[in-house]
Automatic annotation (TrEMBL), chain A:
One Pfam assignment: ABC_tran
Name of the protein in question: Amino acid/amide ABC transporter ATP-binding protein 2, HAAT family (TC 3.A.1.4.-)
Keyword tags: Amino-acid transport, ATP-binding, Nucleotide-binding, Transport
Keyword Ribosomal protein (UniProt): no
Similarity section: Belongs to the ABC transporter superfamily.
Record InterPro entries: AAA+_ATPase (IPR003593), ABC_branched_ATPase_LivF/BraG (IPR030660), ABC_transporter-like_ATP-bd (IPR003439), ABC_transporter-like_CS (IPR017871), BCAA_Transport_ATP-bd_LivF (IPR052156), P-loop_NTPase (IPR027417)
SMART domains (UniProt xref): AAA
One of the GO BP terms on file: L-amino acid transport
Length: 236, 300
């Protein structure tokens, strides 16, 4: 498998606070890769650096052989990276349909097939397409955030805590959909507090601790690692 | 009753000028959370530039109609460009600075434009010619409407409808609304937020320039500090309607125009400003977000 995203020695700081240091990892085409770690470990910052919302102080981010760490976010979207951010960040006073249309902002015209595909993944969005997005339930907002990110037909999808605040049943629906999205050919890099569930369907994972990667491996390796189980997955 | 209706007609003409100017405040605030204090002075500048263009056009013996068309096009283009330059020089360097720095910069830009007008056109009052529109008047059941009022109302309404359609029905309009809600999320959609900010400054300045020309045509007297007082009224109109909300700015402008005229007609001109602020305070006490301004709560 070829590497779609390569991150080397990435360093990000907010003012004098170092958020990420010497982060090196990669994502291969067709994979689901999970970033695991406690709050404040730098998972969200990593995604924000990839999509260009924060500028790295040092290091390289290479997407499909092209260096992207100096690009503006709107240019990065055009290259094929889509980011469903932490807290969903849907446009609450716009309708569900308008939110989806904005997801396709980089496209010359709306691809009917993509829209149909997203409506199939999340039939709720079709039912509520004329409703204001802010009136959706938490789970529906998450569906909208993911669906909106898919409208740009990304090659790489960044998902930040897609199960945050959702019931176990809804979490399962979201995770099943993430698998479906991967199976349709989209590579996924996700941050997930529900690490055990995420690792069960992911290919590989990286464990972050205060801005550094402390452990990496395939999902099986991480799930069976004593350290990971104790620190992040809860004893069983 | 006839006097009352007459006041309403006058109020609508003034109100539509306020509305055009208020849109500029509200759009910039909506996306940047910045009060562009220089907007009023840009409106004043438009009136002065318009007068100069008009005089040049008359000097070239153009017909009234062509002179007016030339005045509107040249002024609108010039002021839109001026708005873009203003953003580039006064606000973009401070995009990441604390909010207060941008406010100070806005006030500085306002003073610079105001004094610039004084340096170029002098401190004395300039007067617009009175014969720009034909002096036709219509008497409709005791109410007198003149052609200037009709022109102001019609053109304002057309512009506002066009803006409403642009904001609500086009891709760029949706991108403007998205940028007003959440800039980072808008960037993640692939929207060039810098481009959007340039667009709203151009659009706001364009509508403001039309407002400034209407002020010149309607009130006729131009003085270099006029931007401050018209700007303040339009700004209040934007707050009354709900700042950040475009239909709110239109509604607020109309309401304030009618209110001003009624106060002047039934109470006294000297009280007009004080009561304008009283109205603002009352509306903000009853509805702190303004009449149309409201935020849909986002569920977690």
């Amino acid at each position: 498998m070829e590497t779609i995203l390569q991150i080397t020695d990435l360093e990000v700081s907010y003012g004098s606070v170092v958020a990420l240091k010497d982060i090196t990892f990669n994502v291969k085409s067709g994979e689901i890769v999970v970033l695991v770690g406690a709050n404040g470990a730098g998972k969200t910052t990593t995604l924000r650096a990839i999509s260009g919302l924060v500028k790295p102080k040092k290091g390289e981010i290479i997407f499909e052989g092209k260096r992207i760490d100096h690009l503006h976010p709107h240019k990065i979207v055009r290259l094929g990276i889509s980011h469903a951010p932490e807290g969903r960040r849907i446009f609450g006073t716009l309708t569900v349909y308008e939110n989806l249309m904005l997801g396709a902002y980089t496209q010359k015209q709306i691809d009917k097939n993509t829209l149909e595909w997203i409506y199939n993944l999340f039939p709720r969005l079709k039912e509520r397409s004329k409703q204001l997005a802010g009136t959706l339930s938490g789970g529906e907002q998450q569906m909208l955030a993911v669906g909106r990110a898919l409208m740009s037909k990304p090659k790489l999808l960044l998902l930040d805590e897609p199960s945050l605040g959702l019931s176990p049943a809804l979490t399962k629906i979201i995770f099943d959909t993430v698998k479906q999205i991967r199976n349709s050919g989209v590579t996924i890099l996700m941050v997930e507090q529900n690490a055990k569930a995420a690792l069960k369907f992911a290919n590989r994972g990286y464990v972050l601790e205060v801005g550094k990667i402390v452990l990496s491996g395939t999902s099986e390796e991480l799930l069976s690692s004593q350290k990971v189980v104790e620190a992040y997955l809860g004893r069983k | 009753m006839e006097i009352f209706l007459q006041q309403i007609v006058n109020g609508l003409a003034i109100g539509s000028i306020y509305a055009l100017v208020a849109i500029g405040y509200t759009m910039v605030y909506g996306v940047m959370k910045l009060i562009n204090f220089a907007h009023g002075d840009l409106v004043a500048l438009a009136a002065y530039v318009g007068l100069t263009v008009l005089m040049q056009a008359f000097g070239m013996h153009l017909s009234n109609l062509w002179a007016v068309i030339l005045m509107f096009t040249v002024t609108a283009m010039f002021i839109s460009l001026f708005g873009i330059i203003l953003e580039r020089l006064a606000y973009r360097p401070l995009r990441k600075a604390p909010r207060l720095s941008a406010v100070v910069s806005a006030l500085g830009a306002s003073l610079a434009i105001e004094n610039g007008i004084m340096l170029i056109w002098g401190p004395n009052i300039k007067v617009f010619p009175s014969n720009i529109f034909p002096s036709t008047r219509w008497h409709i059941s005791g109410v007198v409407i003149n052609s200037t009022q009709i022109a102001i109302l019609l053109l304002s309404i057309i512009l506002m409808i066009a803006l409403y359609i642009f904001i609500n029905r086009t891709k760029i309009g949706t991108a403007i609304r998205a940028s007003a809600i959440d800039q980072d999320a808008a960037k993640l959609m692939g929207i060039n937020v810098n481009g959007i900010i340039i667009a709203i400054f151009a659009l706001g300045s364009f509508l403001g320039s039309i407002g400034g020309l209407f002020i010149g045509i309607y009130y006729r007297e131009l003085y270099f500090q006029m931007g401050w007082i018209y700007g303040l009224n339009a700004f209040i109109a934007a707050i009354i309607g709900g700042i950040g909300n475009i239909p709110g700015a239109m509604l607020g402008g109309m309401l304030l125009g009618i209110f001003n005229v009624l106060i002047a007609g039934y109470v006294s001109n000297t009280w007009s400003e004080a009561l304008t602020f009283a109205l603002l305070i009352i509306i903000l006490i009853i509805k702190p977000t303004g009449i149309l301004g409201e935020r849909v709560a986002e569920k977690v």
